[in-house]
Design brief:
The protein has about 80 residues and is an alpha+beta fold. Helices cover about 25% and strands about 35% of the residues. It has a single domain, classed as Alpha-Beta Plaits. The protein is built from two helices and six strands. The strands form two sheets. It has a four-stranded antiparallel sheet with strand order 2-3-1-6, with helices on one face. Strands 4-5 form a two-stranded antiparallel ribbon. A hairpin with a 6-residue loop joins β2 and β3.
């Protein structure tokens, strides 16, 4: 299950984000989206959980959680159109 994570702190590293989600289930990948010209974070990421159960648990627990002064927005990622 892939999760969209918005409003992440711009200085957050992928390892730190993985540690937040690993408390709620097994994480298979974390990708912070970066600007292709500056290399700086765009403020959102995608986290892939190994199961729907872990993903749903993470959404309910992490959505609204404060990390480095910002409240994360977490929901199931929508397919690209």
């Amino acid at each position: 299950m892939t999760l969209y994570v918005g409003n992440i702190p711009f200085n957050l590293r992928e390892e730190e984000l993985q540690n937040v989600f690993a408390q709620y289930g097994e994480v298979s990948s974390v990708k912070i989206i970066k600007d292709k010209f500056t290399g700086k974070s765009k403020g959102f990421a995608f986290v892939e959980m190994t199961s729907s159960e872990a993903g749903n648990n993470a959404v309910s627990q992490v959505n609204g959680m404060e990390v480095k002064g910002r409240q994360l927005k977490v929901n199931e990622a929508k397919p690209r159109q």
